[in-house]
Amino acid sequence: VDLETFPSRGCLAALDVIVTSPLQQSTITGAADEAGEAARRREQAKDDAILEAYEANDIAFQPLSVETFGA
Question: Which of 8, 51, 58, 61 could, after both became Cys, cross-link 47 (CB 3.0–4.6 A)?
């Protein structure tokens, strides 16, 4: 996690910044068809991996995913 904050309502929040390349072998096919596809896939993978653990501890979790080419 890159940033944890205490919003005004008093709950803990975590922001995870992800920078990914659409040229990766695992995403190049989808990324060629739709802008932002590599970022969307990476964000979903991060959600699948750790979102449940944050929710179990009452922490708001938000991944922020961008691609190296700007999508």
Answer: 51
Task: Identify the three-state secondary structure at position 5.
Answer: strand
- The one-letter code for the residue type at 44 is Q
Q: Show Cβ contacts of residue 23 under 8 Å, excluding neighbours closer than 6 positions.
A: 31, 68
pLDDT tens digits, one per residue of 17-42: 888 888 887 777 777 778 888 888 88
Residue percentage of the chain with pLDDT more than 90: 0
> Is 0.70 topped by the overall pTM?
no
Secondary structure in 3-state letters for 12-71: EEEEEEEEECCCCCCCHHHHHHCCCHHHHHHHHHHHHHHHHHHHHCCEEEEEEEEECCCC
Phi, psi (5° rounding) for residue 19?
-115, 125
